[in-house]
Task: inverse folding
């Protein structure tokens, strides 16, 4: 691939810190990879280049592309997510970070722990914020590097009294975390950032290891991640790439305006631009450009297709989810009959839930697919049951896993489990715990054996899983009706575990970056349709893209509270989806029922009497091929009739 002049300038940039601000498909990923190749050619030690990406998949993809250009040296370039990177240091120097023997917990466990804390401090008051809301407050405050109290005062309507109670619940939650040696997702970044800023010697020790920090998806970094970059720069140089129009992680504290403040934060820093889109045809970009143009935020972005013209995107209005699934599946089959590979097709969905009918359609027609961002393998009940044994073997303070593991056994209820756990916690080591379990649960001798054997296999995760299956399968078979289907997942688990050196590392990898059941089972298959949530689709592309569920209530999502920032974030989600397509884009959604637009309301909009807008309401007819023009208006807002054949204004207007 020949870089264009703008890309070449970025690749060879020889100044200080730099931000490469670029639109979708303009070659940001290619440029980062090119930059690494350039640095290696200049003689930079590969271990002194750090590549920070947003997902593990993105890191793998960059390594792969790098490998194609520089061979095995690619493996020497450290590449990973912020979380992986920080965790590596927390593991390497636990004393310096004050975090010995930690276990990472996922969102489910976090909520369970929060529920316990809420129950203890508040009791059963239904009006008090629920566990999920409390967890969100806590997470948002930390990711934006604010004190909880300050965050609650500024961004919520809660009274002083409620704020105090929320703080008490969070204190209790934090204490429970410490007692169980748990780290939640945010702790990893938080502890790393805090220690880097507090301990000069530690900061210098880590700073010294890198000359170049390359950061992908800069628009989605939050203040906590910025603190980390800030602590690591100088002498290391920052090379950050980002697109303000693709910022879709505000719920984790990212602020797309951050990329605009880059030069102010780092005096002397440069900003470079990439403006030529190499991914899509102009017709696809025209729709994406139009969408962004409707925003009051003024992104000033007009993507221009280096590839020139192609087909117009298709926008089909469907009757319901079943009709949508049939439409997509039929189109897929037709393309396949025409000689296309399955792998050239990507179906983009707003949420995993919204894709269930299309997924059923794929299964029914035997179309091979992988679901990226679908239900995580590790979140299925039977897998959680099995894993609970590995978790207690790995961390004997893991209270949530102990409850799950113990209550799997006959005649062990939550009360018995809770009192057994108290005894377990008093034991000085794992041998003593095994003995205690044998004595206490003599009627279930396999319980103690299972624990003891898994403790002995912490360095052999696949074997530990075999033991767990052997000991727990008879119990799980009775517990689940659909056992035949579920038991297949255990094979997948063993396969995944083979690539890890320890049980801890295995658990941690899939807690941090969950893998869906269909992804895990199809890892070696190459020719597959990709079904993917838009949030997981960042950085990906496919010749043919289907955007499903593009309808009122999904874009923007009905969960948004009418706040302009949230609505604009939702617009960017749709923009990301649209800019994945290379050659063809089909947009489907249930926009009308019985020939009329279906207005959409949530409770808040009902209260205020305003319906939730829909982004494609006024899309000009000239931009898309559509099956429906009836009842639309032209660009001057006049009502159209069925006779308006050659009209090319907006397809629909919902203003009436
Ligand atoms: N100079 C070039 N010549 C030809 N093709 C290019 C060039 N630069 C990038 N491409 C191709 O354009 C496509 C988009 O590139 P890339 O994935 O790097 O863009 P991106 O800016 O990271 O996209 P996004 O942010 O939308 O995910 C890829 O298929 C890539 O190979």
Result:
């Amino acid at each position: 691939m020949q870089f264009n002049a703008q890309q070449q300038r970025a690749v060879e940039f020889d100044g200080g810190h730099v931000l490469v601000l670029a639109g979708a498909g303009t070659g940001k990923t290619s440029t980062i990879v090119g930059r690494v190749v350039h640095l290696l050619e200049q003689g930079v030690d590969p271990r002194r280049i750090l590549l920070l990406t947003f997902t593990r998949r993105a890191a793998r993809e960059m390594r792969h592309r790098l490998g194609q250009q520089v061979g095995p040296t690619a493996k020497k370039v450290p590449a990973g997510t912020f979380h992986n990177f920080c965790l590596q240091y927390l593991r390497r120097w636990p004393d310096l970070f004050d975090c010995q023997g930690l276990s990472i917990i996922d969102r489910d466990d976090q909520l369970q722990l929060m529920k316990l804390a809420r129950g203890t401090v508040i009791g059963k008051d239904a009006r008090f914020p629920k566990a999920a809301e409390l967890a969100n407050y806590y997470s948002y405050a930390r990711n934006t590097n604010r004190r909880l109290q300050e965050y609650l005062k500024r961004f919520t309507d809660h009274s002083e009294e409620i704020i105090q109670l929320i703080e008490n619940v969070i204190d209790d939650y934090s204490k429970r975390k410490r007692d169980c040696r748990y780290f939640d997702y945010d702790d990893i970044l938080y502890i790393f950032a805090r220690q880097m800023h507090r301990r000069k010697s530690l900061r210098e020790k880590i700073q010294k290891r890198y000359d170049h920090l390359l950061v992908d998806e800069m628009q989605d970094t939050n203040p906590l991640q910025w603190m980390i970059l800030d602590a690591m720069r100088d002498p290391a140089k920052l090379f950050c790439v980002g697109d303000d129009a693709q910022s879709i992680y505000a719920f984790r504290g990212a602020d797309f305006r951050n990329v605009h403040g880059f030069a102010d934060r780092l005096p002397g820093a440069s900003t470079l631009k990439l403006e030529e889109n190499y991914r899509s045809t102009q017709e696809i970009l025209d729709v994406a450009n139009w969408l962004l143009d409707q925003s009051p935020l003024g992104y000033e972005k007009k993507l221009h297709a280096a590839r020139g013209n192609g087909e117009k995107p298709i926008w089909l209005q469907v009757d319901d989810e079943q009709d949508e699934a049939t439409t997509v599946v039929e189109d897929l089959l037709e393309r396949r009959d025409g000689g296309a590979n399955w792998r050239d097709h990507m179906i983009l969905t707003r949420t995993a839930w919204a894709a269930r009918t299309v997924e059923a359609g794929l299964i029914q027609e035997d179309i091979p697919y992988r679901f990226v961002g679908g239900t995580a393998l590790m979140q299925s009940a039977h897998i959680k049951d099995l894993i609970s044994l590995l978790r207690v073997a790995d961390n004997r303070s893991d209270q949530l896993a102990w409850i799950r593991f113990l209550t799997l056994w006959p005649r062990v209820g939550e009360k018995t489990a809770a009192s057994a756990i108290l005894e377990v916690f008093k034991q000085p080591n794992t041998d003593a715990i095994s003995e205690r379990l044998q004595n206490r649960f003599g009627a279930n001798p396999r319980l103690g054996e299972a624990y003891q054997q898994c403790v002995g296999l912490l360095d052999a995760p696949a074997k530990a899983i075999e033991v767990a299956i052997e000991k727990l399968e008879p119990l799980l078979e009775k517990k689940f009706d659909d056992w035949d289907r579920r038991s297949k997942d255990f094979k997948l688990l063993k396969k995944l575990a083979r690539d890890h050196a320890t049980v801890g590392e295995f658990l941690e990898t899939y807690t941090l970056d969950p893998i869906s059941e269909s992804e895990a089972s199809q890892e070696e298959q190459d020719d597959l349709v990709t079904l993917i949530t838009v949030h997981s689709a960042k950085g990906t592309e496919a010749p043919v893209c289907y955007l499903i569920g593009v309808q009122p209530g999904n874009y923007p999502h009905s969960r948004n509270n009418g706040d302009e920032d949230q609505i604009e974030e939702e617009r960017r989600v749709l923009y990301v989806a649209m800019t994945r397509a290379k050659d063809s884009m089909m947009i489907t959604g249930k926009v009308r029922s019985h020939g009329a637009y279906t207005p959409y309301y949530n409770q808040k909009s009902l209260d205020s009497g305003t319906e939730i807008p829909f982004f494609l309401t006024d899309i000009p007819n000239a931009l898309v091929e559509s099956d429906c023009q009836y009842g639309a208006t032209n660009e001057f807002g006049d009502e159209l009739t069925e006779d308006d054949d050659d009209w090319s204004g907006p397809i629909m207007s919902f203003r009436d």
Notes: Residues 103-180 form one domain. DSSP finds 27 helices and 19 strands in the chain. The radius of gyration is 26 Å.
